[in-house]
Design brief:
Layout lengths: L1 E3 L8 E3 L1 E4 L3 H13 L4 E4 L15 E4 L6 E4 L4 E4 L5 H9 L15 H21 L4 H17 L3
Length: 155
Amino acid sequence: GGAINDASCLNKTEIYGVVEVRSVEDIAKTLAFARDNKLSITSAGVRHSMGGQAFRKGGIVLDLADMRDLHIDTARRTAWAGAGLTAGEYTAAVGAHGLATGFGDTGSVGLGGITLAEARELLGDAKKMVAAGKSPAKEKARDKAREEDAETSGA
């Protein structure tokens, strides 16, 4: 047990515990333990988040800060990055190979957090569409068709 806080230091949350993750196996074991004990899971990387959304009362925190591997495939122009890297560290490393990824945020944010924040936003958008009686897949197809029409018409 114990407590954890986010970057604002205004959202102290009582938690079951923190697991310092070093491998995928650590994550699998923790997820199994949480499932067996009906505990929620949250993750933390560089703990840049504010607003209290990062942690769940009584839950387990997966501390991903040590997951810092980075594999750059310059031939395919791709990279596989650990959740504990910051956007700045990643940007500097891929930039040395003439590559770039736009994050639209400060270099101090963790890749795990920024990825989850984007996923959470996309899920929220999809839920709003469903609530309005729309299909997210159909809306995406319509948006793509509009973009293609604009490109072919010179707009």
